[in-house]
Amino acid sequence: MFAFSSSPLQMSFLLAAILTSLLTVTVSSIDGIGTTDINYSSIQRDHQRGYELEMVKTKGNQFVVGGKPFYVNGFNTYWLMILAVDPLTRVKVTETFKQASAIGLTVCRTWAFNDGGWRALQKAPFVYDENVFQALDFVISEAKKNNIRLILSLTNSMEGYGGKAQYVKWGKAAGLNLTSDDDFYTNPIVKGYYKAYVKTVLNRVNTFTNITYKEDPTIFAWELINEPRCLSDPSGNKLQSWIEEMAFHVKSIDPKHLLEIGLEGFYGNSTPDRFQFNPDSYSGQVGTDFIRNHQAMGIDFATTHLYPDAWLSNSNPEDHLEFAKSWMQSHIDDAENVLGMPVVFAEFGMSAKDKNFSVSSRNQFIDMVYKTILNSTRRGGGAGGCLLWQIFPEGTDFMDDGYAVVLKTSKSTEKILSLQSKKLKKFNSKCSWRCNWTCRKN
Ligand SMILES: *[C@@H]1O[C@H](CO)[C@@H](O)[C@H](O)[C@H]1NC(C)=O
Ligand SMILES: *[C@@H]1O[C@H](CO)[C@@H](O)[C@H](O)[C@H]1NC(C)=O
Ligand SMILES: *[C@@H]1O[C@H](CO)[C@@H](O)[C@H](O)[C@H]1NC(C)=O
Ligand SMILES: *[C@@H]1O[C@H](CO)[C@@H](O)[C@H](O)[C@H]1NC(C)=O
Ligand SMILES: *[C@@H]1O[C@H](CO)[C@@H](O)[C@H](O)[C@H]1NC(C)=O
Ligand SMILES: *[C@@H]1O[C@H](CO)[C@@H](O)[C@H](O)[C@H]1NC(C)=O
User: Fold this and answer.
1) How much distance in Å is there from the Cα of 24 to the middle of ligand 2?
2) Under DSSP, is residue 102 helix (H, G, I), strand (E, B) or coil?
3) How close is the Cα of 210 to the center of ligand 4, in Å?
4) What is the 8-class DSSP label of residue 244?
5) Contact 254, 202 (CB under 8 A)
6) What is the distance in A from the centroid of ligand 2 to the CA of 42?
7) How far is the centre of ligand 1, averaged over its atoms, from the C-alpha of 384 (Å)?
8) How many Å apart are CA 216 and CA 282, to the nearest integer?
């Protein structure tokens, strides 16, 4: 693990030293401009290799690929595997990646699970549907073709596509004495179901590429569980033990990929002074803890989600912006000063179902999120990036939860996304070529 006590200044020197050695650059003037001597042949070689051979890693509070910074402008589309099962809708997966890639989005977060029910990948514990697995293979293979990396979530804490409620149902059907969905986090046999699932997915050999998932750099990271909460234990101990056990399990099978939890990012009992940044007092009591959870061994980066319209009751667009600003800044500060890892705003969006929704307020919100990220990027800070919830191609409205942004019909929003990609791309290349992680000259 990283030294949590390092100051940002120490950290930036450390990073500069690491980068210097990776790029075989000698910096003879302190500001990294002057007489910087760059080994172009080694940089060119990295470019030619593309991302084919490079896993995403972290150095301090930044993501790196092949020794270069990798700030993320990305998106969510949760249903890719599910629509890839049917040859008729499989084309929607390709369309999603093509459209996203065209505006410079580089990372997509999506479900690598479907526990029981319609088009289940895991039909029952230890029983997998080969046809659905091939749909997931297809998603990964198409992502790679379009230069998009994937964050793959391994189950759900919320309703939808099985998740912890389905695991508990399976446990009950097997005769276990389970009384709450939160038994998912504690019952040894149910934990065994989840572990078996994870092991099967990580060891899967992609039928399109022949690459084993755990070896595939197309995968940016694994996510333990989407939006975990454990209401039965506000102390947070139950969820913490589960995270520690499962992070160890994932890393023991796949030490190469990054791992995150899937948290919404509420502050919990380990930091009562941070409760003020939560949207309300309830969210501090859902059994999660942004700081403590992310300090678990094996967790590589932090996540938070951001839904001001859903989280704040009776609020207007101005309140949303104000909340979002303070929520993001506090998490960026903590990623830098306490956790020593990057933080990704892994879901953010606005629902068209909200009474006060308008496209212009959504655009303003997205723009504000992007500016806050850039403010961090500019000084080499801990905001690793953000993933809009969510991007849809045309003709998939039946999967829409209200948050879908259809790029083809939302030109004003598309423009904002595209501009952010351009700005980040500049940072990603300039930061590496200048070998100055703080990037203040830009
Ligand atoms: C990066 O550049 C800034 C501004 O020129 C400078 O203050 C800082 O010391 C540089 N950092 C490193 C590690 O060279
Ligand atoms: C640049 O890097 C390449 C590959 O690592 C190495 O072979 C070469 O000697 C380096 N050139 C200089 C001038 O350091
Ligand atoms: C089932 O578990 C509950 C809670 O742990 C316990 O109170 C109850 O006695 C158990 N029932 C049986 C049949 O073991
Ligand atoms: C995957 O491996 C099989 C068997 O070795 C081979 O026939 C096939 O061409 C390979 N496919 C790819 C995409 O490499
Ligand atoms: C919409 O905004 C107004 C204030 O502009 C607020 O009073 C109202 O509660 C908001 N509605 C919702 C559903 O949040
Ligand atoms: C930019 O980042 C600094 C340092 O984290 C913070 O103090 C400041 O409030 C941020 N400004 C904006 C406009 O987000």
Assistant:
1) 8
2) helix
3) 6
4) H
5) yes
6) 6
7) 20
8) 40
Nearest ligand (C-alpha, residue 46): 2
CA nearest 345: which of 325, 322, 363, 361? 325
List the one residue out of 149, 135, 153 whose CA is nearest residue 216: 149
Q: Which two tokens stand for residue 352?
A: 């068209």
Mark whether 245 is an active-site residue. no
Known catalytic membership, residue 347: yes
Instruction: Identify the nearest ligand to the CA of 178 by its number.
Output: 3
Q: Which residue(s) pair with 127 in the sheet?
A: 124
Beta strands at 68-69 and 62-65: parallel, antiparallel or unpaired: antiparallel
Q: Are 379 and 421 in contact (CB under 8 A)?
A: no
Residue 320 CB contacts under 8 Å (≥ 6 apart), including other chains: 308, 309, 312, 350, 361, 365
Closest ligand 4 atom to residue 209 Cα is 13
Atom of ligand 6 nearest to the CA of 336: 5
Confidence of residue 6 (pLDDT cuts 50, 70, 90): very low
Identify the band that residue 346 occupies on the pLDDT scale cut at 50, 70 and 90.
very high
Helix (H, G, I), strand (E, B), or coil: what is residue 44?
Answer: helix
The ligand 4 atom at the shortest distance from the C-alpha of residue 208 is 13
User: Whole-model pTM?
Assistant: 0.84
Report the C-alpha gap between 165 and 420 in whole angstroms: 38
Which is it for the CA torsion 79, 81, 83, 89, positive or negative? positive
Reading the block at residue 195, the tokens are 């572990």
Please provide the DSSP assignment of 260-279 as one string.
E--------TT-GGGGGGSS
Distance CA 141, CA 148 (A): 10
Q: 310: closest CA among 269, 266, 274, 357?
A: 357
For range 174-199, the mean pLDDT = 98
Share of the chain above pLDDT 90, in %: 80
Measured by CA distance, the residue closest to atom 2 of ligand 1 is 31
Long-range contacts of 159-168 (CB under 8 A, 24+ apart): 161/82, 161/111, 161/113, 161/114, 161/115, 161/117, 162/113, 162/114, 162/115, 162/116, 162/117, 162/120, 162/122, 163/113, 163/115, 163/225, 163/226, 164/225, 166/115, 166/116, 166/117, 167/115, 167/193, 167/194
Q: Which three-class secondary structure state does DSSP give residue 76?
A: strand
* C-alpha pair distances (Å), 165 with each of 333, 394, 413: 35, 32, 36
Fold for the domain defined by 27-435: TIM Barrel (3.20.20)
